[in-house]
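[job 4471] stage=fold_predict status=RUNNING
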Amino acid sequence: MVEKSIEEINRRIKEGSVNVVTAEEMVGIVGELGAKEAAKEVDVVTTGTFGAMCSSGAWLNFGHPEPPMKMNKVFLNGVEAYSGVAAVDAFIGAGQLSETEGFDYGGAHVIEDLIRGKSIDLHATSYGTDCYPRKTLDTTLNIYDLNQAIMINPRNGYQKYNVATNGINRTIYTYMGSLLPNYGNVTYSGAGVLSPLSNDPDYQTIGVGTPIFLGGTKGHIIGEGTQHSPETNFGTLMLRGDLKDMSADYIRAANFHEYGTSLYVGMGIPIPILNEQLAQSTAVTDKDVVTNVLDYGVPSRDRPVLRKVNYEELRSGSIEINGKDTPTSSMSSFKKSREIAGELKKWVAAGEFFVNTPSQRLPAKATCKPMRQTTRNPLVQDIMAKDVVVIDENATFHEAAKMIMENTFSHLPVVSEDGKLAGIVTAWDISKAVAETGCNYVKDIMTKRVLTSNATDPIDIAARNLDMKEVSAMPVIDKDRYVIGIITSNDISKLFARRR
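[job 4471] inference complete, writing structure tokens
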């Protein structure tokens, strides 16, 4: 049985005799020597990851202006920062979007600009008090003008990530990037073999107070991250580091098309090899890290799992989805992760970075719960019109016009001979047909690619689909494409008005 102490390893770091390797190198060492001999030979294994971590941000203290002010609304380059704590403190979140630039600029960009030493416009307002009489403030400052600029990331370094693909017939835009229709691509994140928590899945050495590489400087783990779920192998970390010492080489803002902004964070953890078990766990390979491929085309918290996959398969460039070879691409940088593990290795080998025993272990028994909702979310079936009138595709447009005039609607679902949805025709389509020649039948003028809804879809999803496609009504169909209702933007507007 091999047993080493933190003090023994730190003495070797101080003396310059420590043997430190990266997690990638450890795979070969354990493969050649076995876990027992590897534990004798290796003192520290370094890990690294560089990926988009939306749950990141920074606490900033601006100092007091003259006259003093209790800032209750704070904007940095047009991005709102949370200020509900004290007079001149604010938290800028990476995912907060600019009031004026939308998806193009957000809290992540403010953080990167601060690290780069750029000037930031501060606009603040207040209600004014006897002790804080000032009501408005505008100034320009940079990171060196701040008293503190402390990165506090509530949830970073996921043990692993779900893999994303899209089974519906249009491109969707997510925090996992753009997902092409009909399982056209697969995106994933995470460093696999270099993933910090995959190298110490039992949190033997990773815990509260563990020193880490964060953004190019030394930071610390300050607890388990939000949504920490070790029982499902989705552990997370809460991190702290001094923004003033960080480098834009390891902290980068990003825009995700039609989704928003995020912050790429470079993070690495040194794992002291105290025993054979740790030597074995740090020999984890890409093949050992298995995760789920989810269909993000399903707009639900509980997306269907299409298959299991490991990081070796993901990094090969393609995986099979429904019998089709589907290209994979990473949302994180393995090259940068490798660079971070290598940089941390240099720090330890040079005697500039020591390991320690956590002051508190991370919870090993926990799962992430879904939100408790006390009100039921209305479904399409709650407000759709069920006495929907349909027309045969072989009917004339005059018959369609008559049907629309006799009723109080302007959208008419069209069905084929077998009664299934074939298209939709509107009053506008009929007006065009009257003005044009050569169109006698409904099938000639109907829209064939119809946006549809299911009865059990949440109203919010139906509203978003109507808005995105700029249409005002959708037939509601069953699993066999028979029309069972119709829902309009007017129905949804009335519902939302009642909810307000």
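[job 4471] summary: Residues 21 and 45 are 5 Å apart (CA to CA).
[job 4471] exit 0
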